[in-house]
Structures are given as structure tokens and as C-alpha cells.
Amino acid sequence: MQDVEDDLIPLLDELPEAVAAAGSGGMHEWPILVIDDDPEVHSATRFALAGVDILGRALQLDYASSSAEARQMLQLRQDYAVILLDVVMETEDAGLQLVGFIRETLGMQEVRIILRTGQPGYAPELAVFTNYDINDYRTKAELSRTRLVTSLTAALRSFQQLRTIAEGRRGLEMIIRAAARLMQHQALSEFAEGVLIQVAAMLRLPPEGIVCAQRGSLVESGDSEGLYVVGAAGQLASYIGHPLADLPDSADAVSAIAECMQARCNTFGKQSTVIYLSSGGRDGAVYMNTGFALSDMDQQLIGVFGSNMSACFGNVRLLEDLNYTAYHDGLTHLPNRTRFIMDLDEVANADQPDINVVLLDIEHFADLNDGLGHEVGNALLTAVANRLKDELGQHCQLARIGADVFGIIGPEAYANPEHMQELLKEPFAVEDHLLPVSFSMGVCRLLERTPSGVTLLKRANIALNRAKHSLHSSFEYFLPEMEDGTRWRLDTIRQLRQDFLAGRLALWFQPQIELASGRLIGIEALLRWPGTDGFVQPPQVFIPLAEYSGLIVDIGLWVLDQACASFKQLSGMPNAPRYVAVNVSMPQLRGGRFPGQVAAVLARHGLPADTLELEVTESLAMDQPKIVVGSLEALRAVGARIAIDDFGTGYSSLGHLRQLPINCLKIDQSFIREIEDGKGGMFAETIVALSQKLGVSTIAEGVETIEQASFLRGLGCTTAQGYLFGKPMPLNQLIEWMAHQPKGPRRAL
To answer: Domain limits at 516?
Structure first.
């Protein structure tokens, strides 16, 4: 073995000048693995390569004494440039088997392998080159120091070329992937990373020294002038999205990029190079800490590369902006409803039981918007968003999901009603106003995994609606029974729609009696929902649901038509009523179509307009007087009678009441019951007196006793309806009831 060692240690003068220069020039070392079962070979190799630089870089040697040890080392580290491998170790072909493991199992195609053997007869040279992917095959006896260095130089140059090609390929693949994923948030970052790898391969530089920056942040859209990192590699990758100044030792990069952007062209320094990227008024730059000045040829190549990348940069930046716009609110710059649901989807599948979802609604925002103007309203929304970001931005995910509704996802410690009330209790300084603002909150605890983010949002919204209608609290936590109630309402509306379309709804009628004569004077049409066993739902339940869903418009038109048809059928009978009364809801009055529909129905059945009385509740008339007054005047112009139903239960003022074109006031039955409850019927008396002053008639509802009827007649009330005279009944029963009524006037009650 001594002869081999002597051959491995020739005079230093044998070494080529290109590789014998001392020092590494500050570049990274070449990682080389020496695998041999002879310790003397390790010592000789270490001595032979001491102080040697190849292609401007020093050598970093690792050693393995067996193929088994080498396998373990290669599984932990796979960035070796060259492997010096003994053929015969544990077995005669241990080295050759290790070659197969490196190439096929580990997939290390770039590493260069130099086989060394002290027993060439065991592995013929031609067979080894033919059957195995190796770069050189030498006997230890012929591998002098010079030949060792020369073989390593050739292998390292080959490795460098393969690595450059591979890095270039990976850069192209990265750009292609970025083009396919441009609509994702990381598209610009991936594109920038691809550019870095391309530049690194072109200039034979490590990508860790290259940074891509742009003017303006996609995270803080309000900052359009600051420089932000959009692409970096290695340890600097964690700074993507941060200001450029946050980079360690960023002074050179900041000044070089600023100079490049001011000059609007590529800049070439002695230690760094900056590529200028610009398209459509948006600019960025790629900073490279080269450590040396680029050659003229490299500068020309960089110029061509930069021109091509500028066009790509513009397209990517434009699509990134579109992507930002698609998922963010333009006023507050918070994530929007779509982004919030995506965030909720992630939360729904996470195992984080201490997370709350909060919906925050500004109370009476519409009034503030109308009273102070939309500019003040927008400024208030921005102020609320800014306070939420300042107080919760580090701990919670925020969004604006509606006109005046904000969404918060965060830990229980921050996303809870008490904490929210505390941070929002101070008034908001908006332009020249100091606005105290109150909020309603709906909270959904993430107690278990939920099917989707939409489910979480729905539950939080259910709680918010409860809070908005609560008289005792400004916030509500979601409870499962709330969802059950909502599901019941939806199921009821769905069934109501199906039964209406199937013709299963019915119209019943209740007689209205003239108190002075005791004769039938009118009938009120009442909607019913018959089921197989009684009623599916009472009117006080399903009619509000029909109004909520908008179904009442179609149902109301059907009721009007059926009521007129039934009245037409009764008109030829003795003691026929003079009019039919039909209830009208607010959705029917909106839009201005209802008066024309009434006229059409009356014409279709050949009825005089004054045979139809339309009843509007007092609360409806007072809630939106402008809409109601205009619609009622249009109905009066058609010729229909107008009655105010449930009068006395609302908050009518005499001023509003005088504006309404009415023919009749209907006294609510709650005041009729007071007649025999010791209160003396004071309210009924007041309403009758008011009607007489207004010159309109009165109808008392819910009259059940002769005493009530006599009292009302004594007051001057003109008409009454109730169980004393007849219950609501289907048309056939009404016809039978009318047949049993005496002809001519009744005895006065």
C-alpha cells in the first residue's frame, strides 16, 4: 500500500496552475465523498487534496469506510458533487452495487462518480463503463496526485454543467407552473422564484444571493411606493412579502434597487447587478449580489433576459392584482365574503376548539348613511376596519362580508363579545363628526368539526339575527336549537310553496253584520292552509313566513281573484253581502303593480269597484307611510274601499291618519274583550268617536256576546263580526248559513 501512497503524493509542481492556487475566493466548497475500506487511502487522499482549489472553490471531503456506511450518509445528504468510490470493499462488487443504489434508488443523477480499484481484475474496465453510469475508472496505482486533481476537475466541471442545466430546467418548470397558477395568491412569488433560479443558472451563481422586489405591497394595498420582497431563496425566503429594508444587511440591496428603479434600466456594479422589470407603469427589480462585475457578454444576456421577463412580470402582476381584487374589499382593504368563506373552510376542518366566528353588524347604519351622507358612512366603515386591524389583526382573521357587517375568526380570548364591546366602545372620529356606534354580534363557537365554512357562516348569521331582534342583549351565541328553528321555517316555506302550487290552500269567509239592522252587510275573505287533520299551520304563523319569503305576492293575487269569484257567486242570493273584504300586505303594495292588478280582477269578474274592500293593518300603514299612502290613493282611484285593520294596536298619529284615504276603521278584538273585563270599553269608545269625526265607518272584530254587540251599537259602531254572528267558514258553509238567515231586517241587538 506504500507504493500507492507514494503515487498519490507527487510534487506540487505537477498541479495545473488553474487548480493549484491557494484560497477559495470566498465561494462555497465542493462537497466530495470518499468511500474506501482502506484507512491509508483516506489519509493519502486527504493529504493529496489539502489546500487544493478547483474552479475557484475549495474541497470539502467526507469519508465512509464501507458501502453500508456510505448508504447511510447518502440518505442524509444528497448534494455531493463527486464521489470517489472503491470497487472492492465488503464484497467484490460492493462499489458497483452502490452505484446502482445512488443512481436508481436515490435518483442522484447529477453527482459524478469516479471508481477506484486496487484489484482491476475483479471489474474489467470496459464492462464497468458499459453497464454503470460512471465518469471515470482508475486503478489506485495509476491515480497520482496530478491525475486525481485532473479527474476531479473534469468531474466537477461536468457536475457544474449538469447542475446549471438542471437549475435552468427547474427555473423553467417553476415559471410554467406559475403561469398555470396565476390566479392563486402565490403566483407572483412563484414567478419571482423562477426568475431567480433562471438568473442564478445563467450567471452560475447560488440563488441564495438573489432577491426579487417590487414597488408596492399586495398585503398592504395602501402602500404603493415602498419596496417589497416578492421572491427570494434559501434563508431569505422567509422575507417574501416583507419590506425590502427588513432583509439582513439590506443597505446595498435597497440603494441598488432604488438606483435601478430611478434610472429605469439595468444597472451593473462591481459587486452587484440589478435587472429592471417594468410593464404597464408597474415596476420591479431583481438584485444579485454577484461579488464581481459581469462581463460584457453576461450584461448583454441579462439585458435580453430582462426584456423578456418584463412582459411576463407585467402579466403576472396584473393577474395578481385581479386576484387581490377578487378576494378583498375595495373600501376597507379587508378580505371580502368570498375570502372569508375560504378561511372558514380551513377553520372548519381544523382541530381548534377554542376558535370563535363573530359577525359584527353596525346598528342603524342605514340611518347614519342617509342622514350624514355616503362619504361619512364609508369613512365610518374604514374607521371600524382600521380599529379592528389595529386591535385584532395580529391574532384574528378579519373580513368585510356585507355592507355594514364584519367577520372575525380568532381565539376565544380575542373573538368574544365582551372584548369586542370594550375595543369598540369609544366613539369614532369621522371627518368632522365624533360618532358613538353600537353593534350587534352573532358568535359561533367551533366546538367540533363542521361540514364547511358556509355552515359556520350560516350559524353565526343565525345568532346575529337573533341579537338584532333581541330587546335584552346586543349579542347572541349560536345554539343548535336556533338552527332547528331556521330549518323549520325553511321547511315550512317550502311546503307552503308546494301546497300553494298544488291548489291546496283555501279561502274561508266570516260574515260582517250591520248592528243597526242585524243584516249581513259584508264578508271578510280569510286564507287557510287545510291539512289532512285540521290546519297545517294557523294564519298568524304561515302568513308572516309567506311575507318573509315573498310568496305572499302570488298568494295575495290568488286570494283577491278567489274572493271576487266567490262574491260574484253570492251576488244573486237573497241577503247577499254588499262587499267582500280582502287583506293586503306590504310586499303587494311595493312596486306599484297592485292597483292595476285589482282593476284587472274586478273587470274579469264584472264587479263594481266599491264591492271590494282592501284591509291594511295599522302597523303596516304607519311603518312606511310614503309607500302606503301612494298605493292607497291609487287603489281609491280604482274605486275600491280602504279599511285600516287592527286599529288601536299601532302608533298612529292623527296627522298620519288624516293623510290616509280610508273608508273604515276596524277595532281590534283586544279592545272588544275589555268591554266585559271591567274597563268599560274606553278604547272602543274613543275609536268610534274618532271615526265619527273622520267621517268613516267602524267595524268591531271579535264580538262574541250580545252584551258586547249592544254596547258597541250604543256607541254608534256601524258593523261587527265575530263568533256571535258566525265563525270563519268555507264558501259552501257560508251559503248554507245565508240560507238560514231571516229575510228582511233583524231585530235590533
So the answer is: 506-739
